[in-house]
Structures are given as C-alpha cells and as structure tokens.
Design a protein that fits this description.
Blueprint: H1 2-60, H2 68-75, H3 78-90, E1 96-104, E2 109-117, H4 137-161, E3 169-176, E4 185-191, E5 201-202, E6 206-207, E7 214-220, H5 224-230, H6 232-293, H7 300-328, E8 340-343, H8 344-354, H9 356-361, E9 365-369, E10 376-379, H10 381-398, E11 404-411, E12 415-421, H11 457-467, E13 471-476, E14 482-489
Helix pairs in contact: 1-2, 1-4, 1-5, 1-6, 6-7, 8-10, 10-11
Length: 492
C-alpha cells in the first residue's frame, strides 16, 4: 500500500508541475496577444497624432496663417482628429465623393468638407485644390516636400519612443475620384517598401499636410520583439515561479525517495539484525562446543583463549542490543564515552585474536603492521574495540573467501593513523558518499543484498570516530579493494 501511494504521489507531483507550466504558458500567450494588440493601437495612435501635428505644423508655415492660438486649439484637439478621421473613413463608401479644402486669408481660416453623390459620368476628376492666399505653385510644392520629410522624421522619432527598432517602411497615396462604382481610389505615389515584403502591421493612411491630397501609411516588419520587451517583468516572474515550483517539487520528490529508501532499509533491518545476533551466538556456541568436545579442561591455555573469545562475543552482542534500543528510542549516537588511556595497537591485536575462529572459517588472513612506538589515545575501549571489529567483520563478509586484509598503524606526537585495506570487490564511486549513512547498504546484483547485515556498522564507526575527535576516509575502486583510513588525536 505504501508503494502504491508513493507511486501515485510521484505521478501527482509530475502532473501538478506540468499543469503549472501549462497554465503559465497559456497566461503568457494571452498576455502576449493583449500586449500585441495594445502595441498596435499605440503605434496607430502615434502615426495618427503625428499626422495631425504635421498638418498643424504645415499650416503655420503659410504666409499669414491667422490666429495661431485658435489654429492650435482647433487643429491639435482630439475633436478635430475624430472629425477628420471620420471624414477620411467615409470616403471609401461606394457611390460617394468626398472632398475637403482649407482656405486661409489674412483675416480668417475656412475649412470646407463636402460629400456628393455622383451620376454616371466616368470622367476622372481631381480633388479640388485648397486655396491659400499669397502662395504660388512652387511654394505649395515645397510645402508638400517639406511636410513629407517632417512626417517621416516625426513618425520615426515617435515609433522609436515606443521601442520600435526595426526598419520603418511607408507608402504615400494620392487620391483619384470617379463618379460611379469606384470612388476615392488611392494610388501609390511613393514608397520605400521592398519587393516581396510581408508586413505584420499596416496603419491606416493619414493626410499629413494642409493640402490634404496625399496620405501617409506606415508598414512594419515586426512588433513581437517590442511586445516581449514590454513583457520582460511578466516573463521573469513566470520563469521564477516555474523555477521555484520545479525546485520545490524536486526536493519533495527527493525527500519522498529518501524516505522510501529509509523505510525499505528499516524493513530490511529487522530481518538482517536477526543474522547479526546469530553471529556472536554461533561463535560462543562453537567455542563452548569445542571446549566440551575436545575436553579442553585439560588444556588450560586453549580453554582460556576460547573463554576470552566467548566473553568478547557476548560483550559485542550486548552492545548490538544497546544500539538497537537506542535507535528505537531515537537516541542513536548519544552513547556516553568513558575515556581512558587506550593502546590502539594492543586493542587491535586483541580484536584480531578474538576473531581467530571467524577468520579460519572464512579462510581469511590478516597482516598487521604495527608501529615501533606504542600508540595511545584518550578513548572509550568498548567503542574503539567495536570500531575495529566492525571494519574487520565487514572486510570478511564482503571480500569473499580469499580475504587478505592489511592493517597498518602509525603514530606521532599529534595523531594516530590506522589503515584497513582489503582485496575485496571495492565500492563504486556513486555509493562512497552514502556508505556511512544509517541503514544504507551497497546494493548487490539487481538491487538485492546477498550478504546479511544491518546497515548500521559503518554509520556507527563514523559516529564513534567523530565523537573521539577523529576522521574516517574511504578510498576504493571497483575490483581493487577498499581502504578505510582512521585518524585519531594522540594522547597528550
């Protein structure tokens, strides 16, 4: 049931992450479309407003333009822009002819807008020219050219303020009027649009000078880059949200995975610990059986040796029981230390001697290289002895039937260095950071453990070494054995 729940928990987390990313993507898409529409409206307004300003600027360049304050009040007002744009739009109606003119005299400015329904005469007509006092055709032509240049510059400046950095293309239209079927037909007079160009934005056409005969239209190749720039803070917040959500889910999955492994390890612990308890019991049983079978009461020296082995195994069994009780009570690692002056080499030799029967049964050999000088530390004899036993016992269990274990002991005034190097199968690098974790065991073939164990030995060793103020390091390569190196502070 736990595995069933965990499996669907992972699925739920993944689906939640996918849904979060999908919702963010949909939100960004809708926001992009809204921002794109808003940008196009801003561009349209900028072109329209520029055309209106350009009309006013062309007007005040005339000789005797009249009352400038009133002209500005009218021709730069939004009401005039709406009226002018409505008049421009109504020209496209079929069967309708629309014309406008502005006449400026020395004492007044007259604006005339007319709408006419034409008959069947297909004769082409021109839009009536506006009348301006004191201006020749050459002056009007210069005014047209100047207005076009100013319109281009103003449009470019205003669009740059909106963030448009791409090339700005335009078309200049000339209006031609007919009486029937086609009215107010726009003819391209000038353009900088390259051949095959496909614009993503086309503005409406606007009259850009007082003459009103020609119209200006803007075409843009791209606006998306500006939209993305406007959305930069939304994009950053969305990406940050997805990153934080993904990070949170990653740590949740990692935590669930660790908890699952921890739960599996604890489940294995119950069955494996049975074997761990049986080992010292079996050793004591063998020793006692040998005493009886071979009547060792007549061989006091061997009898004494077997009794020491039995005593050591019972002490180890008692320590294992205490470790299990501490784990069940949540007090693992809180065992008090009873420090005293301890000879490391003598302790190691005693452990090796007490494991003689186990070494013989496993066909294992140990080479112990001692230091010329005694190596003393301030430590707890029980825990230090169990550190040595755990390392040797692990070497015997995992190295097979041909174990060759080399133990080296070196010391100086500051530290004592111990090395336990075997010829076993070694430990893969990916597991070397985890071997000291509680309940962790290096998996065998197919993630199964072929060798019984509790997964507590190396965790206990590392914990006790550190409580003695020392360090333990691991060097191992698959197929080349394993070397555990312990460094303890020397007794002062």
């Amino acid at each position: 049931m736990k595995r069933f729940n965990a499996k669907y928990t992972y699925l739920l987390i993944v689906l939640s992450l996918v849904a979060s990313i999908a919702l963010q993507a949909v939100w960004l898409q809708q926001l992009f479309l809204a921002q794109q529409k808003q940008l196009k409206e801003d561009i349209e307004y900028a072109v329209s407003n520029t055309a209106q300003t350009n009309v006013y600027q062309s007007m005040i360049k005339l000789k005797d333009p009249g009352n400038l304050r009133q002209l500005k009040q009218l021709f730069l007002s939004p009401q005039w822009e709406q009226l002018r744009q409505s008049f421009e739009n109504i020209k496209v109606l079929s069967g309708l002819s629309a014309s406008s003119s502005i006449s400026i005299d020395t004492d007044s400015t007259s604006v005339t807008m007319s709408l006419k329904l034409k008959g069947n005469d297909n004769k082409k007509i021109r839009k009536p020219a506006s009348r301006y006092s004191g201006m020749t055709k050459e002056d009007l032509q210069r005014l047209r050219q100047l207005s076009l240049v100013e319109m281009e510059n103003r449009v470019q400046a205003n669009l740059r303020q909106l963030g448009i950095r791409s090339e700005i293309y335009y078309k200049i239209y000339r209006s031609i009027y007919y009486n029937l079927y086609q009215y107010n037909k726009n003819e391209v007079l000038k353009s900088n649009v390259p051949k095959g160009f496909k614009p993503v934005f086309i503005s409406r056409s606007y009259s850009y000078n007082i003459l009103g005969a020609n119209k200006y239209q803007v075409l843009l190749p791209s606006v998306n880059s500006v939209v993305w720039y406007r959305m930069r803070y939304y994009l950053a917040s969305s990406l940050l949200m997805i990153l934080l959500t993904g990070t949170a889910f990653y740590f949740i999955l990692r935590l669930l995975r660790k908890q699952q492994l921890y739960a599996d390890a604890k489940a294995d612990f119950t069955s494996n610990m049975t074997h761990e308890f049986k080992t010292p019991i079996a050793t004591v049983s063998v020793a006692l059986e040998s005493i009886i079978k071979y009547n060792l009461i007549n061989d006091p020296e061997k009898l004494q040796n077997y009794l020491k082995v039995s005593q050591h195994e019972l002490q180890r069994l008692n320590l294992m029981v205490e470790k299990v009780l501490n784990i069940s009570q949540g007090n693992d690692g809180e065992q008090p230390l009873h420090l005293e002056l301890y000879d490391v080499q003598s302790g190691l030799q005693q452990v090796v001697s007490s494991m003689e029967l186990q070494l013989i049964n496993s066909h294992a050999s140990i080479r112990f290289n001692t230091s010329a000088e005694p190596c003393f530390v301030e430590g707890d004899p029980v825990h230090l002895t169990n550190i040595f036993y755990n390392l040797i016992d692990n070497a015997i269990k995992y190295s097979g039937s041909t174990l060759e274990l080399q133990i080296d002991c070196e010391c100086d005034a500051d530290k004592v260095v111990l090395s336990f190097k075997d010829n076993g199968p070694g430990i893969e690098k990916i597991y070397q950071q985890n071997v000291f974790e509680r309940f962790f065991r290096v998996p065998g073939d197919g993630d199964t453990h072929n060798i019984k164990g509790s997964g507590l030995g190396l965790h206990y060793v590392k914990q006790m070494v550190e409580k003695h103020g020392g360090t333990i390091k691991l060097k191992s390569e698959p197929g080349k054995g394993t070397n555990f190196m312990i460094t303890l502070p020397a007794a002062s």
